[in-house]
Amino acid sequence: MLGSAVVRLATPPRAAAGRRQLVDGSLRAVLHPGAEDADSAAAGCSHKWRMVIAYDGTKFKGWQYQPSPPTIQCFLEKALIRITKLDRKELCLVGAGRTDTGVHARGQVAHFTTPFAYHCLDSFHSAINGLLPPDIRVREISAACPEFHARTSTKSKIYHYKIYNEAVMDPFHTNYAYHSAHKLNPHAMQEAANHFVGVHDFSSFANAVHNDRVRSPIKKISRFDVTKMDAIIQLEVEGTGFLYRQVRNMVALLIQVGREGLPPEIVPRIIAAKDRKELAKVALSAPPHGLYLMSVNYDKEILKPPVGSPPVSFGRTHQISRCKLLFY
């Protein structure tokens, strides 16, 4: 596993990529930009790359960079630094969403920049995943246009929240779903969820953030679906953006409605209050391990790669042309 210290490494070598043993035990090319896979750096020229990332957030302190305890961004930057020989300021890795400790992702999006371009992304893709721990995987890498920004170009985000609704918790869902032993009423939850749809001031559902960013509490939610799948109740919400812990706070209120301790009409009353204290009177924030960032959506135009870019990499598949095992 990669260390946590950020070290400025040597500038990219001109020679072709060497071979190095990676953490997963495989032997692959670690791509220093060389003649086979990358163009030499052009003065004043930068190239932007988009990644789609999945991770099990159980062991990590969220997305946002901090060296200790480690975060998702920290591990990705360490892998990119080792491969590209650039430092983190040059890479400028930016994620679409800053998921909290314990929150999972299927479709987190991030971008980074390099002063050189790659002809082929498959080997680069394999090298990154070879350097990452097994609970973080880059699913897709593609070239991005200069105007693309993982966070500010976002059109919408989709989150799932999973609730395991049986008397006894399935141990295989322990880290991936909230356990409610109370029988929930999904129809009442859906009725309450419908009140979130539209453009509202969600101040009542936002926790305080200790940074300098001032964000508008006005957000648009286009849909909020409650689906029962055997023991799992899945909440799926799509919106233009979300405030800090907004999704988990909305889920917490829906759980109270599902227990039939509160009527669905409580939702518009708490929205209208525009005061986080009003929600705190009736519900605590839902725990993080049931939450998943499923996808980040963009306009098609902003996703078009520059002319002459390498094909999108979805990872290599391995095939055996013929069986070499001996049968007796």
UniProtKB/TrEMBL annotation:
<dbReference type="GO" id="GO:0031119">
    <property type="term" value="P:tRNA pseudouridine synthesis"/>
</dbReference>
<dbReference type="InterPro" id="IPR020095">
    <property type="entry name" value="PsdUridine_synth_TruA_C"/>
</dbReference>
<dbReference type="GO" id="GO:0160147">
    <property type="term" value="F:tRNA pseudouridine(38-40) synthase activity"/>
</dbReference>
<feature type="domain" description="Pseudouridine synthase I TruA alpha/beta">
    <location>
        <begin position="52"/>
        <end position="144"/>
    </location>
</feature>
<dbReference type="InterPro" id="IPR020103">
    <property type="entry name" value="PsdUridine_synth_cat_dom_sf"/>
</dbReference>
<dbReference type="InterPro" id="IPR001406">
    <property type="entry name" value="PsdUridine_synth_TruA"/>
</dbReference>
<dbReference type="GO" id="GO:0003723">
    <property type="term" value="F:RNA binding"/>
</dbReference>
<dbReference type="Pfam" id="PF01416">
    <property type="entry name" value="PseudoU_synth_1"/>
</dbReference>
<dbReference type="InterPro" id="IPR020094">
    <property type="entry name" value="TruA/RsuA/RluB/E/F_N"/>
</dbReference>
<protein>
    <recommendedName>
        <fullName>tRNA pseudouridine synthase</fullName>
        <ecNumber>5.4.99.12</ecNumber>
    </recommendedName>
</protein>
<comment type="similarity">
    <text>Belongs to the tRNA pseudouridine synthase TruA family.</text>
</comment>
<keyword id="KW-0413">Isomerase</keyword>
<dbReference type="InterPro" id="IPR020097">
    <property type="entry name" value="PsdUridine_synth_TruA_a/b_dom"/>
</dbReference>
<feature type="domain" description="Pseudouridine synthase I TruA alpha/beta">
    <location>
        <begin position="192"/>
        <end position="299"/>
    </location>
</feature>
<keyword id="KW-0819">tRNA processing</keyword>
